[in-house]
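thought: fold this chain, then report.
action: predict
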Amino acid sequence: MYEKNGEKFFIVDAHVHLWDARPQNQSNIHGKQFIDCFFDYHSNLSPESEKWDYETYLYYGGKRLMKDLFEDGYVDHAIFQTTLLRDFYETNFSQFRETQDLVEANPGKLTHNYAYDPRDGEDGITEMRKAHAKYGFTGVKLYTAEWHGESRGYKLDDMWSRKYLDVAQELGVKNIHVHKGPTIRPLDRDAFDVADVDKVATDYLDLNFVVEHIGLPRLEDFCWIATQEPNVYAGMAVAMPFIHTRPRYFAQMMGELLYWLDEDRIIFSSDYALWTPKWLIEQFVDFQIPEDMTEYAPITLDQKRKVLGLNAVNLYPHIQVPEELKIKTPVGANA
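observation:
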């Protein structure tokens, strides 16, 4: 919980990672390229006081994660978004077993989303069913730009992707998080294109599609899709740190999201450990649309409460919010 001037905010960090990018886990040059690109994002968009050294950034472990999120970072609940990158890392980029152990050791604080690759065909569906029976996840993270063999990505509306979405729907896995944002070396920019979200959001009305990184740099494309598809949400990972380096750009992004979507479909994320949540939360609570940007309305405290946590709770209703941190305005969503 974060409190400022007597105002209290329930915090859900809806996109965090526990990764291992050390050289011994890198399968090839692409593993190093990927984490080096992450480190550049971290170094260029973080305040000087929040920058990590490179060695820590490669692997920080669960103890450091819990401190950064829950002791220092005001977070009440965090959601792991699993990233595979099987062709780049020996034991994947996200550490599934280590993450799951952390979830089980901290009941009520952490949610662990599954990840699949539809190019695995029937074998992947079998594994997904087994994993769901064991862990009961309600969300998945998809990475359409991931390389696998000769393939350099896939579309959400590909035949096999639709088969997996059918199974997700059958199992009650409602929240489909999709990385649709800035390209990361060595992946291809067009594989992050947000256009395929439009097709599946129309066809799978019982699923929520959280577009991570709000489709940047294709914000306009994302907004035109999301305004017509009420089951499409804006995941703010990567967009949030611009509040520090490019505050007017951040104001433009928030203004456009509030105009085209609504205040109930914008989800706070630090993308930890790309960035730590503490300074992002502090700066967002203090943030306001500049007065000369008259095309956008000021952001209210209740809108900030929704963005910082209550909208994510609506997607993940197992997260318990203390009564004093709720707001009277109902949050409408496809939960």
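thought: worth noting. The chain has a mean pLDDT of 95.
final: tokens above.
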